[in-house]
Design a protein that fits this description.
This protein has helices at residues 3-9, 72-79, and strands at 11-16, 22-29, 33-39, 42-49, 57-63, 67-68, 91-102, 105-114, 117-132, 138-149, 171-182. The chain is mainly beta. The protein has one domain (11-182): Lipocalin, CATH 2.40.128.110.
């Protein structure tokens, strides 16, 4: 087998399993507590190079209408033009541009697009392993975290408090638990 053939066999495609993938976020509320939420609908593809993980790639898309903070009035406000404006921008997209090794972990660097704004983000990622499922398929698990400033993506709505401070914090912590099925 040639080097090129060997490299080709080391690459596999994995489809993100929306039923077993969680995209969660947290943000300060009133500067004293933390509100958590998640997006229930995410799709995407991971092209994994087992021999050289830095040669892998990731694409993902989140249906913003699937936002859930366990409070329907707040969710409706987040879907509105004040925040995500889902009628105009129904999805959040991520496309990796490179992957760098960070000790035992990897940083997946890529372009995150929210509304019509694209910024580079770094997902600090852990490979959680691989295994067979009861239906004869192969599964892979990954965890990732990052933090963004929502204002950099045009999410600028806020309200000043009489005591100082604001209703919604600017830093958003994002946590991903991804399960993917080998194509």
């Amino acid at each position: 087998m040639s080097i090129a053939e060997n490299a080709a066999t080391a690459t596999s495609t994995w489809n993100i399993d929306p039923a077993h993938t969680t995209v969660e976020f947290s943000v300060k509320h009133l500067m004293i507590s933390t509100v958590r939420g998640h997006f229930g609908a995410v799709t995407g593809t991971i092209v994994l190079n087992e021999q050289d993980p830095t040669a892998s790639s990731v694409t993902a898309e989140i249906d913003v209408t699937s936002i859930n903070t366990r409070q329907e009035q707040r969710d409706a406000h987040l879907r509105s033009a004040d925040f995500f404006d889902v009628d105009t921008f129904p999805s959040i997209k991520f496309q990796s541009t490179r992957i760098e090794r960070d000790g035992d972990h990897f940083d997946v660097i890529g372009n995150l697009t929210i509304r019509d704004v694209t910024r580079e983000v770094v997902l600090h990622t852990s490979d959680e392993g691989r295994g067979g499922d009861p239906w004869g398929g192969q599964r892979a698990g990954f965890s990732a975290t990052t933090k963004i400033d929502r204002r950099e993506f045009g999410l600028t709505w806020n309200q000043a408090l009489e005591t100082g401070g604001v209703v919604v914090g600017n830093d958003i912590k994002i946590s991903l638990e991804v399960e993917a099925v080998k194509a």
